[in-house]
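Running co-folding for zinc ion.
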Amino acid sequence: MNIAKVIVDVPASSINQTFDYLIPDKYTDILVAGMRVIVPFGPRKIMGFVVDKATESSFDSLKEIIEVLDLTPVLTDELIDLGRWLAEETLSLYITAFQVMLPQVLKARYKKELERMTDDKLTPELEAFFAGRDFIPYEELDNSVISYYQIQKAIQDGDVAVNYLVKSRITKKQVTMIKPNREPYLLEEVYRELPGNAKKQQKLLRFFIENPQEIEQKKLMKKMNTTRSVIKSLLDKQLLIASQKEIYRNPYDDSAFEKTEPLELTQEQKEAITPIRRSVQEDQHDVFLVHGVTGSGKTEIYLQAIQDVIEKGKEAIVLVPEISLTPQMVNRFKGRFGSNVAVMHSALSSGEKYDEWRRIQRKEVQVVVGARSAIFAPFKNLGIIIIDEEHENSYKQEDNPRYHARDVAIHRGEIHKCPVVLGSATPTLESYARAHKGVYKLATLKKRTNEKDMPSVEIVDMRNELHEGNRSMFSVTLKEKMESRIAKGEQIVLLLNRRGYSTFVMCRDCGHVTECPHCDIALTYHKNSNRLKCHYCSYEEPMPVRCPSCNSDLIRFFGTGTQRIEESLVQLIPEARVIRMDVDTTRRKGAHEKLLNQFANKEADILLGTQMIAKGLDFANVTLAGVLTADSMLHLPDFRSSEKTFQLLTQVSGRAGRHDLPGEVIIQSYTPEHYSIQLASHYDFVQFYRNEMNTRKKFQYPPYVFLTLITVSHQNHVTVVQTAQRIAQLLQQYMEDNTVVLGPTPSPITRMKDRYRYQCMIKYKNEPNLRKIIKKIIRQYDEDVRKNDLQIHVDMQPYQLM
Ligand code: ADP
Ligand code: ZN
Ligand code: ZN
């Protein structure tokens, strides 16, 4: 018998296992693990992943696979194993683990077509099948004499391709290609006969005589500085010929990148890269932590290590935080490795993402630079994995499967026997502690490559400002420094620490705060639309004129959003030209990039924004960085709040004075004595690490213990409380003695989208059976989860405690 073991697309823990299906004869030769299939499941037809094949089954009366969706597996064998591991590790379902590894396009059923990729003769059967066409609807295969095996073979030989039609084919990108229509010597003859005033045509002909190849029309125009009409006149004379060619939706124009060469490394860089290179050469798995201040040349180290990997014929994954996946960052990699780089981030359309993924799958690139999910790139021969800004929260997925890209990286690094490099100016305590213990190998870069000092940092005590009668958001010092920069034509970056700020609406008479009717948080005031909006669900309502509680008309908005800061900034320094960057101004695709370009072109003096401006930006002309309220997130109910504050302040400081002009940083604070602010102002990470480790030890937080967060939610308050209590009891009962189970307590946001939320936190040092126990407990609620809309989320490595 021919049996396929299939993980089906039914997200329920009782279905979280393989099911056996018979492989129909027509598919026996082609079906392998990693392909998607359509199978009957109860009354339905659903999608599934083949994870294995077998010759026997312990079940009778198996059903047959209805359809095979792929002729090339979408999951490699390694990714199938990785998916299994990921599901176990994060306590999620196999199906969710597989799906998170694939581009969106492959999660749904799309129409497919076969495309002829070659002008060479195909086999007679295939020639008859294509019958002169370049594209054929995939379904025609079913009724033809062509076997799936034949087609699969043609695909492997590169003669035929399967396209998933994300939209209609029309939307696929076509470009016009131009090539000479005659032999060079014939063109030469024409060239001489052209009238002397046809200079432009001559120039173009000369080009094709010397370069008798096909070239994209747009590039040709740019290169020869010529126009469409000149090309057209040669086309009309049939000297040139035009054709349409479909191209990948490559969002970056590879020819636009200036090629860069490896730089001579500094002593510090050499010391850091040498052991990494050794691991690459010796195919050895090690984890390196490169701790280096901004501008110390970490990226150059990555580039040169990747160079080695490429030369060995292997592949590299580089993760950077979504937000710093800026054109500047992409340029560095494309500049060094050109079209050998695929880029993956969320601003790409699903078609673009799929194209980039396919370039990896087809082995057309050796390097991928991308955000979190690029860690699943289907490379088969990894030589290095790099995670830049390893402390960034965006590496943790806050949705099932709740994985951390660092863990996946290290797991893949072990499998591929290749180094994993973590880089940061402010590593997480977890990583630094591991480096300290020798689990990771530490390399420290203390100097900037340009030998410039880090900018000097001045802390301004905002309490004094208040005492002296300055009620504005800007200290006198900051104001003066901004003015002097503007006068000199230099630029300023201003950070508003958004968290802890909101523009909520409060009644001055009775103190009533308008909250979202579905979530437990205050609504945020949006000035443009004069409406109140919830940041968790999409609820909104008009700004009330009177207090809904006491009917007073003294209802006002409070707090300070970027928009209000911008207004008071312009009042304070009327000549300042300000660019505001926050979620509101960057929502549209490309907006982020556009604002940054404007700032780079000096169309503004001040870049004002939230966290998103703190990262990865590199502007030569910025000489002042200001943080408006450094402590606004120090007091959040999160044990990482000091660490996050330290990271943010260090990062902002790195924005100023990166080049020739010296930089300066102003940090405004209401608690300037706090160690995370003090130590950030001296760039003293190591001391911060020591202080913070003491605190973590005292209160028993990571890295001294591990945490697991279990959140229960349901519309009915009583159901939530009872379920959470029962879960906590069971946990207590099964856990080791020195494990602590906290709760249940209401989650910091107790109601979200009309669902009540309670949580239990498990703090443990060693709990080998933890996953098994949690799984068993959750299984008891399977019925309620499926039919009763109960939700139980397990986070094995919580970062968001809200
Ligand atoms: P980081 O990633 O640590 O912030 P980068 O790799 O971006 O540092 O380096 C900062 C700047 O120094 C960049 O402009 C880079 O081109 C330059 N740079 C890096 N290494 C060298 C070197 N060995 N010699 C000269 N310039 C270098
Ligand atoms: Zn009121
Ligand atoms: Zn809401």
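Result summary
The domain at 254-445 is CATH 3.40.50.300 (Rossmann fold).
The CA atoms of residues 500 and 632 lie 5 Å apart.
Job closed.
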